[in-house]
Amino acid sequence: VESFPKGKQGMAMAVYAMGVIVAPIIGPTLGGWITDSYSWRWIFLINIPVGLLSLTLTSLIISDPPYLERKKLSEVKVDYIGLGLLSVGLGFLQVVLDKGQTDDWFGSTFIVWGMVAAAVGLIGAAVWEWRSRDPIVDLHLLTERNFMLSTVTMFLLGVVLYGTTAMLPIFLQTLLGYDAMTSGLVLSPGGIAVLILLPVTGMLMAHIEARWMVMLGALIISVSLFHMAGFNLDITFGMAMWARIYQSLGMAFLFVPINVMAFNFVKREKVNNASGILNLARNMGGSVGIAGVATELSRRSQVHQNILSGHVNTFSDAYQRMVAGSTAALAVRGSNPVQASARAHALVYGLLTRQVTMMAIVDEFWMLGALSLCLIPLVFMMKKVRLRKSTVIAH
């Protein structure tokens, strides 16, 4: 945004996004290989050399914009109160989202007090930052309509994308028996598809209004999620991989246009602050998406189990035949009658559990697909932005 004129920002943002997309391409497969071959702890340790490389490249390549005024360290005013309130609010909110499902949400005293601390911190930060002369987060940027709506759109996009990315490995590894690396191989081709399509998106930005591209991306993601709602326990590796690719194609039409619309009316000296808010919205959306998927998966599983278990009981002829057949098969393999009967009942319960979890995952895909459609009304409320070679047309 700082380095390119507005007429070239679409393509520049596309090239930048290509770098961002490399991580989802490499991450799932590499992470799966490391987990299967060594230990999940190396998933964290591998960040050390990557972080050192990032610091080195940043110091060598990245430079400050010419309009930025340098100040001595003694002259810098740090908004310690705003920073403290924001840290408390976001920190406790993250803990609540991570631990909520495990601790039964508001049935846990710890979660209740954690939510109170998060609310106090975030509300206090919002009030303080709004009134501060030198805020660490400039909330006044949200008064600009396009930036505010783009921030909301990025939050919802984070919910959908991170929620789906969290749910697919659960489905593949828990129900289909894939190992971590094979599960990663299902996800990674979607990143390659985005990588190929992003330059096309950058070129289209000069000819097609950004709002229409966001609408197209939201529709593609929604349709792909409704397609995933047709998954069952017999799908193949290829079917799962292509479904992920279809979803990823929609992402290519969202990332660049949303960023262009967000920054188009932001003053250049506010770009850094705006970038922080936009990235925070995406990451918090991701946290909410992952927590929401885990919670709804558990609750929908309970709903379906209550329904199905009413048809799976000792008075059902089908149930009795299945248990009898399984008991006979296990007895032939050497189990005594008592053990064979107990294992037969356990097998039936295992089948019930798999079906229940599958039905809950299908519900999740439907809900995320419907949430994707909610992005479209937000698009119509934004101001028009169309990039040209040397000008920007905005209404």
Structure description:
- The chain is mostly helical and 395 residues long.
- The chain contains 14 helices and 2 strands.
- It has a two-stranded antiparallel ribbon with strand order 1-2.
- A hairpin with a 4-residue loop joins strand 1 and strand 2 (392-394).
- The longest helix is centred in the last third of the chain and has 39 residues, at 271-309.
- The two termini are 20 Å apart.
- The model is unreliable at 390-395 (pLDDT under 50).
Short description:
By secondary structure, the chain is mainly alpha-helical.
How does the SSE layout of this entry go?
Layout lengths: L8 H29 L4 H4 L1 H15 L18 H20 L9 H23 L13 H31 L4 H25 L5 H19 L8 H16 L2 H9 L7 H39 L7 H16 L4 H37 L1 H6 L4 E3 L4 E3 L1
Antiparallel strand pairs: 1-2
Task: List its salient traits.
395 residues; elongated; mainly alpha; 2 strands; two-stranded antiparallel ribbon; 73% helix
